[in-house]
Give the backbone structure.
Amino acid sequence: MTQSKFLSLLLLLFVFSFVSKGQSAPTNKLVSPRIRVIMDNDFSGDPDGLFALTHLVLSPSVEVRGIIGSHLNAADGFDRSKTQADNAAKKAAELLAVLKIKDQFPVIAGSNTAMLNDSTPVKSKAVDLIIKEASRTDTSLPLYILCGAGLTEIASAILTEPKIADKLTLVWIGGPEYSDLALPPPNYSSPEYNLNIDINAARAVFNHSQLKLWQIPRDGYRQAILPYSELQLKIKPQGEAGKYLAGVLETLMGRLQQYHFNLGETYILGDSPLVLLTALQSSFEADPSSSEYILKPCPLINAQGGYDYNAHGRNIRVYRRLDINLMFNDFFAKLELNK
């Protein structure tokens, strides 16, 4: 008997032993972390960040090293307080309590204010966390910083300790469309929502750093459309977590109706691609192989929050098409398994 046939026989016997006992194979032991992540998000604002955080912490291929609650634009209608980052951290902790994993990850509030300019970092425990994690020498797992809001904390970390720039990959949901790739949607906002949270931080990252950057601009993250029918059938029935997530979104829908704003029957879960591009990378030659990107010279961000062409900019990934089916189907399955 050849070695390959012998190994195949052993595998069949292994599977048969579980089936014969009415058990399923221990898949939880077959998947282990292969990347480290820190998630940075404005959890007291748009609830899409809470959906992405749930998906992330239920993904066994990632080692979550920290969760940062970040601020919104000072005039944002979601949270007009002066403690937006503190509120965001409390909201993330609330969700983790629902998931019964409250003490497994550090949850830290970032700065409650944006950067004063593109060269002066803010100081916060969140900045310290990023620097500490990026500076580790005791692990070979690559580090990804997942930003679904402004860039205050990561920009400040790079300004504070420039040596960490080549030790991590920044995945950012934000920025307007590139005019040579896509048109903006009707009645679009300018500057783009996440970029407008802290334009100075975006300028620090784009204009002055050498960070490895994967960007999902507005035409990319707007692809993550969840129909209300799937919220009702595939999320809401899935235990306490599903009920909680459906509740925060339905509360928002009702709140907006009071102002005669009709969302229709879909909602954009624009932060969920952060999980798609990291936890759901391909098995061999790991990469987000089912989504499409192009390499572009990193543009300069001008004072108005627009792009200026920069022929000498480092190459960055700009994601154009996302595998939304993989992303949502995996999320629905993990919610059901966690029920």
